[in-house]
Amino acid sequence: MSKYLIFFLVIGVYTTIDLNESELIYLANHLSIEECRKLVAYAHYKSFDLPNELDQAEHKLSLGTSCIDLLNHWNSAKGEGKGETHEVLEHRLRQMNKKDLADWLGKTVFRQLGPDMERELKYGFKELLNDTTTIRYAKGPTFMPVIDDTPPTTWLPIDSILYAIIVILLVIFIIVCFQACYVVWYKCLERRRKGKNRMYRRVSNDVSESEDEEDDKFDIRNHEKSKKIKENSV
């Protein structure tokens, strides 16, 4: 009989995730019975906005039940508050213009969650660090691809080959660029030389033509001399 009683008590503690009895009592003491019935009726619905069927939800609540009993029933009933958080009641309180109670509930729950989380983290990790049990898995056939556990910074032979190829390509590129620059420079130099030779030939041709013209000009003095010579001979 004691085993079943213990089992029943353990199962009974599963209510909302972060609400306790003292917080529910505080809410019950600061709400009228009408406000408390509305709050519990609103909390039965999962919608974000206020439900339109409020009267139907209130009729399902017994009239002679106190506020704390209504809150406790909602807090532990499956399909209502069981497994939920304080945000359900906080949200409904804000919709009922009970912002002071909603702010108090949110701050109180988070203030209580802080030490609880710190305690769980402290002792939970302590137990994990003290646990030195090593689980060994037997190796067997698997369809998963083999994962290479080689560190990514390890220098492999393929890295040496790729590095050598990159260096060779870089050297070839530099040589090709140098040859291309040399060919362009040589062609430019040849064009300049050809241009100078053409200009020199043109100037020399002009000079020779001018000399020939000077030679072909009529000299009056030579004509007079030749005329006198002919007259004397006669």
How would you summarize what this structure contains?
By secondary structure, the chain is mainly alpha-helical. It is 69% helix and 0% strand.
What this model shows, in words?
InterPro entries: DEATH-like_dom_sf (IPR011029), Death_dom (IPR000488). Keywords: Membrane, Transmembrane, Transmembrane helix. The chain crosses the membrane at residues 161-186. The chain is mainly α. Among the domains are: 10-116; 158-209. The protein is 69% helix and 0% strand. It has 9 helices and no strands. It is elongated. The model is unreliable at 1-14 (pLDDT under 50).
Largest sheet: none
**Total number of helices:** 9
Shape: elongated
Nearest-integer average pLDDT: 72
From N to C, what is the helix and strand string? HHHHHHHHH
Whole-Å distance between the termini? 182 Å
Query: What fraction strand?
Result: under 5%
State Rg: 55 Å
Which stretches of 5+ consecutive residues score pLDDT under 50?
A: 1-14
* Helix/sheet category: mainly alpha
The percent range for helix content is 55-70%
Number of strands: 0
Subunit organisation of the chains: single chain
Domain Death: 53-109
Protein name: Death domain-containing protein
Organism: Brassicogethes aeneus (Rape pollen beetle)
Transmembrane segments: 161-186
